[in-house]
Amino acid sequence: MKSKCNMTSIGVIGAGSWGTSLANLLAKKGHPVSLWAYEYDLVERMQTTRINDLYLPGIILSDNLSFTAVVADVTRLDVLLLVPPSQVMRRVLASCVHTIHPEALIISASKGIENDTLAPMSTVLEEILPPSFVLRTAFLSGPTFAREVALEQPSAVVVAAQSAETANRVQEIFSTDYFRVYTNNDIIGTEIGGALKNIIAVAAGICEGLGYGNNTRAALITRGLSEMKRIGQALGAKPETFSGLAGMGDLVLTCTGDLSRNRTVGVEIGKGRKLNDILSHMNMVAEGVKTTLSAYQLAKKMNVEVPIINQMYAVLYEEKDPRLAVNELMARELKSEYL
Hints:
This protein is of the alpha/beta class.
């Protein structure tokens, strides 16, 4: 499916695997796209080889995609796509907000909750951007591995925005014959689903590392979804969002796929490796680790019952034995499924 929208100049902040893959998708559609990377040496290599060897090796990038280490090169364009790690979103955006085109469309594709403020990315953007951007801001989420999108494997995502016009515009800009974009107006539900699924994916990896099988994983995914939904609804999210792409869809992918960074971290923890050692050998960010801290504190603040997230906090931040965490979850007081 070819989009009928006019070609639009697009700037992308964040040259990790997901930012690079999305930038390449947009460039292959014919949009002139500029990708900003923090690492100057990476920018130089991408300019020379047209490959992001650090985060998306082996993928030849479109000729319509340019690379820069100067953030103003991307913020002055018609559309600004934000894909930095969630914990640095505030700092990155605050450093360049004064250079953003005043009529720009802003899209966030980062998944996470700030540790210090417990704020989702929508709140971070609202606090940093001028009020005039509120109705021109959208949030992209869904079950997608960057490499599979870069390989043009059929994928589906959702874009959430207050304004239907904004959501529809983003839908048109991103949709291709292999990348299908749906819309909704539940920003907080879309964000919470995208953030919390990473915690459950770490837990799924731990269970695999411990040698548990499919029964355990299915139970974890289902009960993990219940906790995501509880926190989301406490924040005002629509329950049906968690049955969709940003909820169940993203959760299943991240808990089961071999390309999941969060699941990979969990597998290594289950095998007995220490968290700091695992993270020190990773190029890319596993958002679920830091999001666990935010979700644990957020649930306590709102008095929401989240036994899996509580145990994940203990495993990641208190070095609790993962097998003991599983045993305690199984030994909890018996109850109705829907309470």
